[in-house]
Specification:
33% helix, seven-stranded parallel sheet, Alpha/beta knot, globular, 9 strands, two-stranded antiparallel sheet, alpha/beta, 214 residues
Length: 214
């Protein structure tokens, strides 16, 4: 039998073998099971069932992201929050590409997207609709990504290149910068990972407030 241990914060290591949870918390360690593929599929939305009002009111501008696999991951994450729109800009690769589909897993069909040559032009167009633009970038004037308020929606989020980040031209068109606090020796994350953290928090903020007003 494989045995593992767990430590309470600041405390000694504890037994985490089968029976640990029932002995200590009155909860069966075997009471949870993984859902089957059929059960997961039964809970999925369909393209036909998605209403425009169901979508998260965020437009994401992808500023010259080079990796096809990152782009595919961005599509898949965008599907997870039911994003309003993706705007791919510059040399960001666009569907249909086999490498994008490898990580998107079909999300290119559920996420509305367009391609615009210049990131700056894309941001200006979105702002003309009366929304603020936020870049996910380290600048000399940032707020935490979780500090966005429900009243800030709809909004535009700009994410940047794997090496150089959001371009200076794009930053100049943004109203605010969002930062993800980090505590290690690196002050950067993979763009698809950073996007996932930020967009799911924006999704939580908006949908929590939206449910309260319905």
């Amino acid at each position: 039998m494989v045995r593992t241990v767990a430590a309470a914060p600041g405390g000694p290591l504890r037994d985490c073998s089968p029976g640990f949870f029932s002995r200590n918390f009155g909860v069966s360690s075997t009471g949870m099971r993984k859902l089957t593929h059929a059960e997961i599929a039964s809970r999925r939305a369909t393209l036909e069932s998605i209403r425009p009002t169901d979508r998260l009111p965020v437009t994401v501008v992808v500023d010259n992201v080079r990796s096809l696999y990152n782009v595919g991951s961005i599509f898949r994450t965008s599907d997870g929050v039911l994003l309003q729109k993706l705007i791919l800009t510059g040399f960001t690769p666009k569907p249909p590409r086999r490498e994008i589909e490898k990580t998107a897993l079909g999300a290119t069909r559920s996420v509305p997207w367009v391609h615009v040559k210049q990131p700056r032009d894309a941001i200006i167009r979105v702002k003309q609709e009366g929304v603020k633009a936020y870049c996910l970038e380290l600048t000399d004037s940032t707020i935490p990504y979780y500090a966005v308020k429900p009243t800030d929606f709809p909004l535009c989020l700009v994410i940047g290149n794997e090496i150089t980040g959001v371009s200076k031209e794009a930053i100049n068109e943004c109203d605010c910068a969002l930062a993800i606090p980090q505590y290690g020796i690196k002050q950067s994350l993979n763009v698809a990972v950073a996007y996932g953290i930020a967009i799911f928090e924006l999704n939580r903020i908006w949908r929590s407030a939206h449910r309260l007003t319905q």
